Amino acid sequence: MQLSHRITHLLGDGDDGWGVFYRARAMKAAGRDVVELTIGEHDIRTDPVILEAMHAAARAGHTGYASIPGIPALRDAVAARVQAQSGVPTTRANVQIMPGGQAALFAAHHATGDPGDSALYVEPAYVTYPGVLRALGLVPCPVAADPEDGFQPRAADLAAAVRAAHRPRSLLINSPNNPTGGVYDAATLDGIARVVRDHDLWLISDEVYDTQVWEGAHLSPRALPGMAERTLVIGSMSKSHAMTGSRVGWVVGPEAAVARLADLATHTTYGVPGFVQEAALFALAQGDALEVQVAAPFLRRRALALDLLARQNIVRVQPPQGAMYLMLDIRATGMTGEDFALALLETHGIAVMPGESFGAAAAGHLRVAMTVADEVFVGALARLLEFAAEQAARAA
């Protein structure tokens, strides 16, 4: 039997960009020691107090079908959090609870484009972005952000891409950014907003790393003039509260769009388990202190990494302004990111993501997740830098 074009072409002409990750997991299963610096998974787990709240909610009977838009109290809490951060008036009518940020991305694009429409996104980009678009029959249109610009997208490049696209409907951005660690400044966001308004696009703003900002400040484009009515914000408990497996995220946007997203959830996910939503509500009620605690290891490891990187001149880095990753430029070795990552894995048992996984704009780079204990992280990064120096000397 023949499968649909949508499912068989989900990954385009290649794989899903996770070849090194899968190889590392296979090596670990075979008994080899591997330091995994691949995925954005905290090395700490969900705080026990949150798990206790989840357990209590389940024991109290919150195990049946929950409100599909999200339980009112959680929607109120998310609305209050978003309003406090952005300054934009927000109520529960602007909030749809989703099973994680990934489902939220899928739903947002479902709402903003029809099959055959073009959906733009800034590259380097998280690996699932183009697959989400293909799954919906949208045409993925990457717009490169240059490492020499600190991976900040240029408004002129965005406008040119919109003009070249067939039936452009949306632009997806991500700040703080995965994989680059870039945080879009006010000038960049003003340029993005201008392009979106001038070309009557939806803006989908992935802000799941909004609690991990090391330089500057997180700014939501929803707060800019004329943007609240055309912006869908993606949020999640995964990164802010180390609740990756709980699958709690949201879309914040105009009331009419959010109401339609509830219709979509009725016909797809049928909501998020009530006891999980109750735990998310409890977690948000703990305030900034818990979020700072969850983010602290990445800020600390960032400092350790930048100190190591400053002692050599082969591997270059744009100091990450946010998120839990380093984006390393290894072009001086003469190797592609993929070749370097595979060789590093085989020879040293260190797994990192090749930049090519995140699009052509990241070629010759590596994404390194700062997600293992400090001493393990420093040791692995030191070996990576030694390996890079060896390869550069060989190339010379």
Explained architecture:
- The chain is of the alpha/beta class.
- Helices cover 41% and strands 15% of the residues.
- It has two domains: 5-45 and 289-390, Aspartate Aminotransferase, domain 1, CATH 3.90.1150.10; 64-286, Type I PLP-dependent aspartate aminotransferase-like (Major domain) (Aspartate Aminotransferase, domain 2, 3-Layer(aba) Sandwich), CATH 3.40.640.
- The protein has helices at residues 5-8, 19-29, 48-59, 72-86, 101-112, 129-135, 155-164, 186-198, 255-266, 274-285, 288-309, 337-348, 374-395; strands spanning 35-37, 95-98, 118-123, 139-144, 168-174, 202-206, 231-236, 249-252, 316-317, 325-329, 350-354, 365-369.
- It has a seven-stranded mixed beta sheet, with helices on both faces.
- Strand 9 (316-317) and strand 10 (325-329) form a beta hairpin.
- Helix 4 runs parallel beside helix 10.
- The chain starts with a helix and ends with a helix.
- The model has no long low-confidence stretch (mean pLDDT 96).
What percent of residues are in strands? 5-15%
The biggest sheet amounts to: 7 strands, mixed
What portion of residues is helical? 40-55%
Number of domains: 2
Number of helices: 13
| Class by SSE composition | alpha/beta
Regions with little confidence, pLDDT below 50 for 5+ residues: none
Quote the distance from N terminus to C terminus: 53 Å
Number of strands: 12
- Shape descriptor reads globular
CATH class of the largest domain: Alpha Beta
